[in-house]
Amino acid sequence: MAHVLVTGGTGFLASHTIARLLTAEHTVTTTVRSLARRSDVERMLTVAGAPHAHGVSCVAADLTSDRGWDRAVAGADYVLHIASPFPAARPKHEDDVIVPARDGALRVLRAAREAGVRRTVLTSSFAAVGYGHGRTGRTFTEDDWTRTDGPGVSAYIKSKAVAERAAWDFVEREGDGLELTAVNPVGIFGPVLGPDYSASIRIVHAMLTGGMRTAPPIWTNTVDVRDAADLHLRAMTAPEAAGQRYLALAGEPVSFQHIALTLRERLGEAAAKAPTRSAPAWLLRLLATVRPPLRETVPQLGVVRRASHAKARRELDWVPRSNEDAVVATAESLVRLGLLSG
Ligand code: NAP
Description:
By secondary structure, the protein is α/β, with parallel strands linked by helices. It is about 40% helix and about 15% strand. Helix 4 (about 95-115) runs parallel beside helix 5 and helix 8 packs across helix 11.
């Protein structure tokens, strides 16, 4: 049993990870930007079926400020640094996400070093691995890094690559024995625990509510949030995980059209609004010229990024659910929690 600090307890992945830590009988402190969110955290943990949901300590801390981090990390054996800006829309300026992601990671690592924490697991992303390489048929592994000056690299993608680089540089130069492990998930799906769900859930939400009438020719990789949380726990304690990165994904990339068909097949009437047709790329490029929110998706049209989870499977015995089970679990939870209006 250990004491673990999980940053960003209001988040989708963090709440599932806390639930798993509590189930494994660890004690947990989490950070929230505002203590007013404590009850939301407890509610999500209860929905997740976590024991002792009310026993989690909450500390107020923001990635953009030094305040609170020393208190949050006090007594922690491990830190799971999961919080990072994950905006649903393009930010006004790229520094709005890059600076909190990078400086926040450094704040957390500095506090962890000062408190004598054994290991920090950083939630990075496939965004730090497989972007900016243009069209390529290769299979990305943990040896790859996103080219932040390459094509199709959004502010969010850049923020994850820059923050992970900064974290590795920090432990190498001034970590003073602090161990670091990175987990690099692809698009995270699986059951939501409440109305404040992650931007990655919007795809399934839009398909179920009729907000996506035709499926754009976009491919994504998926991982179930419960499996991503499980990998964080394995990465936290496995001796061989120190100094390593681990990609977290279910398997082969899937198209939005495949996701829509899977939802229709497995949910029946509840997925009656999921698109049956695919929109051509040329039409979406044209639409993007007049609808700015579509512009972020243009570089992703028709691009298939393959990656491998062989390292996590081999070294950490990690066995994820399938793509289909992950997206169906998202859809079922949105239905179950009544989150399909609006
Ligand atoms: P999420 O539900 O939006 O969670 C993001 C968390 O970060 C929230 O708790 C949020 O707090 C917190 N946060 C954002 N800016 C902050 C700031 N300035 N100070 C303190 N906390 C801040 O998204 P998620 O999917 O769980 O993402 C968790 C992590 O996984 C992130 O590092 C993300 O980059 C990574 N990731 C996600 C995906 C995916 O598809 N979802 C894929 C790969 C990697 P508030 O609730 O106060 O906003």
